[in-house]
Amino acid sequence: MRELLFRGFHPCDCPDTIVMDGEKVKGKWVEGSLLTYKDGTTFVCCEDYIPDVLNKYEVLLSTVGQSTGLTDRTGKRIFEGDILKTNKYGKDDGKGHNFAGPDAFCVAFEDGGYCLRNEWRRFNLRPDIDAEVIGTIFDEEAQHDN
Fold it and tell me: Residue 9, Cβ neighbours under 10 Å: how many?
């Protein structure tokens, strides 16, 4: 069974910064189980630095993304909303399902599955991808590209 893992941005006085609605927000990314209350308050619950202690972090709902179950070439988990950089997508299967890059793609969930998309291309996200996570759609650099 696939692990159900989520990531969200917890606003706090931490070193990470994202851009939301044109404003910079300081905080940190947290990974774990998703918990949403009836009032819409959203938390990511994770085991932090203390074993067997569950910590609950309130996160910005629009930043929540599910893990794809895949990792990049460095071993980093790939989540919805990540931006991947790749030089070649997949193996040449004789049907044109590869390309030479480099190119950057956003990871999204569309039509019942994970895909990579940018303004020119859309591909299904496959386990044989040779890519690296270079940021998220909430990074300041990504905001300038939109």
Answer: 28
- In a 13 Å sphere around the CA of 79, the CA atoms on its Cβ side amount to 21
* E strand intervals along the chain: 6-20, 23-36, 42-47, 54-58, 65-71, 77-79, 82-88, 100-110, 113-117, 122-124, 130-136
- CA 90/CA 92 separation, integer angstroms: 7
pTM of the model: 0.83
List per-block mean pLDDT (blocks of 10 residues) for the chain, which spans 146 residues.
Answer: 87 94 94 92 82 83 95 95 79 53 84 88 84 91 58
Neighbours of 67 (CB within 10 A): 19
Q: Checking phi first, is residue 99 left (phi over 0); if not, alpha (psi -120 to 50) or beta?
A: beta
